[in-house]
Amino acid sequence: MHLRRRLGPSSGRGVVASGAALLVLVVAGCSSTPTIDEADLSGADRAACESLVADLPDTLAGLERREVEPADALGAAWGDPAYVLTCGVPEPGDYEPTAECNVIEGVGWWVPDDQLADLSEDATPIALSLRPYVEVSVPANYRTEGIDRALAELAPALTEHLGEGLSCL
Fold it and tell me: What is the pLDDT of residues 83-96, one digit of tens each?
């Protein structure tokens, strides 16, 4: 695994969830079904996301895959609290071509520097080295262990179904 900068505890840095493409709701201490927003995609991008979602693993970082809303969403969830993957998110407006990515198993995951401050917050890395872009919401519970494993486990399906995206340093 080629890793430039870890997203977990070894870097002492964290990521704050963007909340842009998905919501994981917690009501009265009980988790609800993760909701994934509909993406406005081209036919080719939609087909790539559909094939990716169909090929995602049944477990991620030891957690079982669970239902999402809507049932045909371009994404998946695992565990409770849930890792939530959303395919087809927009390019972040604050991405710079010289930005540093965390390269895990050949996939460049990008997080804005201003979100790398607090391990007690949720993380939302975006796989910008592949298109259509994929975002993974990572609950704070998994920031100290599990995040690098989860992103590594997603890499084979992402690289099989998605095309080349932006370059990461």
Answer: 999 999 999 888 88
